[in-house]
Amino acid sequence: MITLNKYNFSAGPAILPEAVLQTAQAEMLDYNGIGSSVMTMSHRSDAFISILYHAEQDLRQLLHIPDNYKILFMQGGASAQFNMVVMNLANGFKRVDSVVSGNWSRIAHSQMGKLSNAQIHLAAHGGDLYNYTDVPSPENWDVDPNSAFVHYCINETVHGLQYRNIPKPEGMPPIVCDMSSEILSRPINVADFGVIYAGAQKNIGPSGATIVIIREDLLERCSDRIPDVWNYQSHISRQGMYNTPATYPIYISGLVFRWLQAHGGVEQIQALNTMKAETLYAAIDSSNGFYINHVKQQARSHMNVIFHTPEKELDKMFVQQANAHGLCALQGYKSIGGMRASLYNAMPIQGVEALVNFMREFQRRYG
Ligand SMILES: *Cc1c(COP(=O)(O)O)cnc(C)c1O
């Protein structure tokens, strides 16, 4: 067994459990003794149908997804869902409510109105309110229970913001949530949501698969006029096989689900995720202002931790030298700069400890 002496802090496509990659490597040429790679088998073969079935069942078990919710593994990324949720769920409605709490929900907000007659109503804007140092509290969302739905992003990957307290559905229209960068990182009550979607490449698997979890009754809103490839109901009626699904990413996602089950599931991984995030934030907060994170305590993401030093030049040196120490992909998002450490499920606590040690050493030298 080769253990790579490197830690990958990329925001996405992101770190995957080494054990999963080793299984994939071992099965690359011959899956399960059938003499073919998962990559080269028909999506309608018994072997792949079984892979898809078990991936769905394992996800259902991990998130305790109730029976009245359907699961799809789609393509097009979370970005395609910005429009699909409107096309499928807002038909015949006048209004969609949209909460902007950071980069991704801002982009969603800008896209959702395309190809729709519904008004995309800005229910709250975390940039205007707090300059993205906090998330707009649900009490301050201007939503109408008669809207088609309210859309928000539970973890803002770029701004390092997370709804630590998950909004409750009382008084809300159905809640549609972008969970791309935190799904499976902590327990959620699926019944609080109308639709949950997530691109796989943050906390699940490789890019190419997008998870959509949808409450059954909402499928009645999907109009026949929506082209089948964009229509949730068409995909569900054909057991996720309307067209060729992203077979290999689904296979890897399935291996990740099994890995997570073997590690005690979402409840266990949450404890580890909390410890990792608290370790890193404590290092930032105890640096006497050398490392800075402006996010309010109650909205600090446990998945994507952003920070910077007092100088852009130092940030650049930090990223370069960290990389030379095997602490990879720490550069912040292109429009924000600084550093970003993504601490997804597959990041071991040793990675965070190595980062914190490096931060101390860097500060001792340049602080
Ligand atoms: C990465 C990301 C997206 C965009 O995902 P794509 O798969 O590139 O479309 C959307 N929302 C969130 C929260 C993300 O982290």
UniProtKB/TrEMBL annotation:
Catalytic activity, as annotated: O-phospho-L-serine + 2-oxoglutarate = 3-phosphooxypyruvate + L-glutamate; 4-(phosphooxy)-L-threonine + 2-oxoglutarate = (R)-3-hydroxy-2-oxo-4-phosphooxybutanoate + L-glutamate
InterPro entries membership: Aminotrans_V_dom, Aminotrans_V_PyrdxlP_BS, Pser_aminoTfrase, PyrdxlP-dep_Trfase, PyrdxlP-dep_Trfase_major, PyrdxlP-dep_Trfase_small
Main subcellular location of this protein, as a coarse class: cytoplasm
Domain called Aminotransferase class V: residue spans: 7-355
Top-tier EC class: transferase
EC number(s) recorded for this UniProt protein: 2.6.1.52
Gene Ontology, cellular component aspect: cytoplasm
Keyword Amino-acid biosynthesis among UniProt keywords: yes
The protein's required cofactors: pyridoxal 5'-phosphate
Cross-referenced Pfam families: Aminotran_5
PROSITE patterns: AA_TRANSFER_CLASS_5
N6-(pyridoxal phosphate)lysine found at: K202
Amino-acid positions noted as binding L-glutamate in the UniProt annotation, renumbered to this chain: R44
Binding partners and assembly: Homodimer.
Protein name: Phosphoserine aminotransferase
Organism of provenance: Snodgrassella communis
